[in-house]
Amino acid sequence: MKKLIVLGNWKSEKTLQDATVWMETFASLVRQSERQQQPDVTTILCPAFIHLPYFSGHLGSLPLRVALGAQTISAYPAGPYTGEISADMLSGLVSYAMIGHSERRRLLGETDASVRAKVEMARAREIAPVVCVSELDEVRALHDAYPDYETYGTILYEPLAAIGSGQPDTPENADAKASEIQAILGKLPVLYGGSVKPENASGFFAMPHISGVGVGGASLDPGKFYEIIESAGSSG
Question: Which of 220, 233, 199 minimizes the C-alpha distance to 25?
Fold first, then answer.
């Protein structure tokens, strides 16, 4: 069976109280489900930095394994970099780090150079990078820097027109792009991200070159997020 990944990206959402309510509801859904263990599905939750310690202390009690991921990581080592969260600080707390999300490229000026620096920092602390790309030029830049990226990393393909628009790409178009990405980087996992919902997730899971989805808005709702996870378990 194909192994699938479901990554939830909360972006800059939820207070600690909101996160607590989400966790309680999600835990209840998992424990009530007949499909608690899903060995062919890797679930990754990427809340805001302030929520990582809370989830680290609570996700382990679930019968469903959920790994923690950071939404970004500093391009700098530990030191005098006010406001940055270094790989040293995240080591042992998260297993994954999203790098180069389109919103950070567009709004915060992240570049291919900063993506390279962040990948390097993540690798040094054995945090698996999930590099976000929207264009093949970004994929080629990653390959030029790390020809062996397929051996330790994942790609999250997010077409700009689909992010937050409610209008996802078609599974067929996304699969064709995933195939192009793999032609450059190798047979690594490629996730699709952009307006993924419970109603359309299975279409992406069914595609031969897509290994999962990145979920934004729907991950904020524990019911919708768990429905997507269950869909992955049925599709794998």
Answer: 220
The helix (run of H) or strand (run of E) holding residue 113 is helix 112-124
Is the model's pLDDT at 35 over the cut of 90? Answer: no
Domains along the chain with CATH numbers: 4-235 (3.20.20.70)
Gap between the Cα atoms of 39 and 95, Å rounded: 17
Active-site annotation holds for 172: no
* 158 annotated active-site: yes
Task: Give me the mean pLDDT over the 165-189 stretch.
Answer: 94
Q: What percent of the chain is predicted at pLDDT more than 70?
A: 96
Contact predicate 138/89, CB 8 Å: no
Q: How many residues does the chain have?
A: 236
Q: Check 101, 103, 138, 230 and give the catalytic one.
A: 101
DSSP percent split of the chain into helix, strand, coil, nearest 5: 45, 15, 35
* Interval 60-82 mean pLDDT: 95
3-state secondary structure of 110: coil
Query: Which of 103, 110, 138, 158 is the catalytic position?
Result: 158
Mean pLDDT score, 140-160: 96
Asked whether the predicted pLDDT for residue 46 surpasses 90, the reply is yes
- Name, in order, each residue with C-beta under 8 angstroms of 59's C-beta and a sequence gap of 6 or more: 23, 45, 66, 68
Q: Which residue has the tokens 């180069």?
A: 100
